[in-house]
Amino acid sequence: QLCCRSVTETNMLLLSALTVALMTATVQCSVITCARQLSSCSCETADGGVIDLSPLSSPSGYPFSASASGGQDTFRWSPCVGQLCGNQFDTAVCEFYGSSTLPVGTASSAKFVTNPARGLQLVYTDNRAGLLYTSSVILACDPDAERAEFSAEGGVYDIFMHLRSKHACVGGGGGGGGGDGGEGISTGDILCIIFLCGLVLYLSLGLMANKFILGKEGSELMPNKNFWIVLPGYVRDGFLFTIGKLGCYGGGIGRSSAGYEAV
Fold first, then answer.
1. 253 found inside a domain
2. How far apart are CA 133 and CA 156, in angstroms?
3. What phi and psi values does residue 161 have, to the nearest 5 degrees?
4. Can you tell me which family this protein belongs to (predicted)?
């Protein structure tokens, strides 16, 4: 029983590692990372491309405005250039509520930050009367967007807004509006290409081998059919095993924890 338990836990750990690797590969394929900030509204990505929001900027006034959920507060945003908010200059994000205004992010504090859950963000801070305000503009790349879309979630001290624009794409800024200037292939792209090519090759060779060498028909043509049938269950068990080890489930991990006999 001890031997079986040891083998089972080893398999669970291997499945956990596989789950983490798959999640990491997914993030690598989709999340953009800024390696070097070029200005308050542009940065160089890890693969040498450039994101430049300067075509969206205005020398005077806030080019973007949106009401938060509920419609009580309005947030105005000025990329690149600081504006006047109340009696403070150099404001990138200004909150309007009723007839009052509140600076909640200075242009000089702009910083590109990659969040695993929300993606690439342009983050501003403003420390007023001992209170730290953080305003994040979440950047969504849309190469087909002719006009930028801006919306606001709002918040009290942590404020979130959203920008969907072609200028949020790598190589989409610099006044060019789209195109492929400066866009390279990242490590994540290479991993995705290798994975997809390997998957196509695996399926093609497996199907041909089962058809013409082993003479199989129907669903039996699928390479390693039994493995793919049980894999989702194994991945689920590996995930629950990892969560259980972290203590998130307290006493166990579902069916697996009840499968051992007391020694």
1. no
2. 8
3. -130, 165
4. Belongs to the ATG27 family.
pLDDT digits over 56-76, tens only?
998 889 999 999 866 789 999
Q: Which domain holds residue 240?
A: 2-25+185-246
Partners of residue 66 on adjacent β-strands: 75
Distance CA 157, CA 83 (A): 20
Q: Which residues pair with 106 in a beta bridge?
A: 91
Q: Are residues 17 and 38 in the same domain?
A: no
Which residue(s) pair with 83 in the sheet? Answer: 91
Q: Do residue 49 and residue 148 come from a single domain?
A: yes
Does residue 11 sit in the same domain as residue 93? no
d(Cα 33, Cα 13) in Å, to the nearest integer?
Answer: 30
Measured between alpha carbons, how far is residue 192 from residues 18, 30, 258 in Å? 16, 10, 38
Query: 3-class SS at 146?
Result: coil
Chain segment 146-204, per-residue pLDDT in tens? 899 999 998 889 999 999 999 999 984 343 333 333 344 556 667 788 888 888 888 88
From residue 216, alpha-carbon distances to 17, 203, 206, 234 in Å are 34, 15, 11, 26
User: What's the token pair of residue 100?
Assistant: 């009052």
Cα distance between residue 167 and residue 190, in whole Å: 24
